[in-house]
Each structure stands twice: as C-alpha cells, then as structure tokens.
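Supplementary notes for students who missed Thursday's class. We covered one full example, reproduced here. Read the sequence, then the structure, then the short commentary at the end.
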Amino acid sequence: MQKRVFLAAVAAAGVTGGVASAATLDDVQARGELNCGVNTGLVGFAAPDADGEWEGFDVAVCRAVAAAVLGDPSAVEYVSLTGKTRFTALASGEIDMLSRNTTQTFTRDVDLNFEFTGINYYDGQSFMVPAELGVSSATELDGATICIQTGTTTELNLADYFRSNDMDYEPVPIETNAEAQQQYLAGACDVYTTDGSGLAATRAAFENPDDHVILPEIISKEPLGPVVRHGDNEWGDIVRWTLYALIAAEELGVTSTNIDEMAEGTDSPEINRLLGTEGDFGEVMGLEPDWAVNALKAGGNYGEIFARHIGEDTPVGLARGLNAQWTEGGLMYAPPFR
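Structure (token representation):
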C-alpha cells in the first residue's frame, strides 16, 4: 500500500511538473545554469574530485547539455541525489534533467510521467563478494546477507532471482553507494549487488580492489540514460539529440582534437549537418547553429568520454562490450542527422 501511495504521489507531481516546465529551455537560459541531478558519489560516473569539482561519465552528459544550451559546459549546478530522492527532485522541478545511472523501465517511463532521452550505458545487475569467501557463482549465495540500495530496480531483480533459484537471502538496505561501501567492507553484508558498472566503480575505490570479486552472472537488463519530465517535448529533444551528437560524432570520426577543422566544413553532409555548417538543426531546437560543436568540445565524443572516465585504462576498467558502436558489434547507435 505504501509503495502504491508513493508511486501515485510521484506520478501526480510528475504531471504537475511537466505542465509547469513546458518551457524548461527558457528557464535554463534565463537562469544561466543547468540544474542536473547526479549520483551522491560513484567513481568514474559522478563524484567530486580533490578540488570539489564534479567529474565522471554521467557528469559529462550534464556538461554537454549545458554547453549545447548555454555555450558553457561549466554552467551546471550539480544536485546529488539518492535512488529514493532522484525522481521526486525531477518531478518537482528541482532539477532540469537527471543524469544518474538510471534504468529505463515501463513504470518510470509511463506511470511516473518521465521521459528517457536515450541510453548512454547498457548494463546489467551483478554481485560482488570478498575473494576470501571462495564464491565463484551467484548460485552459491543461498542464505547470504546482501547490501542493496533502496528505491532501485535492483531490489525487485534480487527478489526475482533468488525466488527463481529457490534461494533465501537477508537484505541489508542502504541509501547511498558510500553507505554500501562502508557496510560491505565492515562485513555487515556478505554481498553487494547493483549494476555491474556500479560494482566496478565501487571496487575501484577500495584500498585493495583485488580482494573482491564480481561474480559472472548478469541477472537483468539495465539500460541507463538521462531522464527529463513528460510535457516538454522541446527540452526532451535537446537532451536526446545532445546525447546522440556525442554518439554520432564517434561513429563519424569527429573528436575533440579535429572538431575545429571539421567545423569549417567537410565532404560529409552528415558531419556538416551535425556541426551546423549545413541545415538549421540548431534553430529548429531553439539553439545556436554550433550547439553540437559546443557539446562535443565540452568533453569529446562518446568514445572519448567513455575512455577517460570508465574505460579499460582507468581504475574502473570497463570494456566497451555492448556499449561499443554498432559498427563494432555493440548497441551504440545514433539516428541519422538528416
């Protein structure tokens, strides 16, 4: 009953927020700043650096949108949100967009009146255990205590997986990834479960990462991406096509090092349309012709962003896998700029 009441309240807030925010672009431009909801702290995805500046894979999307809309990638107010608070913050208008490793589901997209504007990371839920336990498979976790963030899809996935495998577990609810790390390392739970990318990022922050093992089972589909409210199609288009610009640029060979040269014009009509030397794509969205150029200068194309923050040469150490370009056997695919 409490869950249904909560969903109804958030859905109602989403409807109100959607109507009230029918001019989000105008609000952002008048404010001169993008309010972007991010994680409370997840290495590689969204976390403050030593100087207190936010950085990471999801942060890069916020910066790209700010650059596209305002011409300034630093014009972002980052709002750190938990799994529980993120949707209320978006529905209420506290933030203009959510870029917080959030899974697209039917309920979130339809019942809660949100709009997912594309997928920037294809993921799946997994499990991490201390290596000293000698566990090599999730099927060996019967009776385990498991740390799990509340307000996430992982709660239901976990229940489904253990029920289907006729196993029992004891949940240890936590609010943030930082709390999960603390409880897991303190031995309050045998296992930590969340998206595989989140486990890799969490392990990377440990003093001895090799003392912990991510089990091979992937028990769910977790398509992660930016989210906006229903009711403002223009704003949704801006966030969506900014993400697509990052993805398309990688496919088309536009990088942070050659973009100035390419922005002067190329032999490729699609690159020219992307970078604003042909067509009026920026004007159609209420932006400047060089909106995509600004977005790409904020942090490079999708591949550059991935490699810099979470790729194989970073402490997080993620391979491209499903997140490779479609031309390389992955799922990353931007619709044509036509």
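Commentary. The chain has 14 helices and 14 strands. Residues 244 and 335 are 7 Å apart (CA to CA). If anything here is unclear, bring it to office hours.
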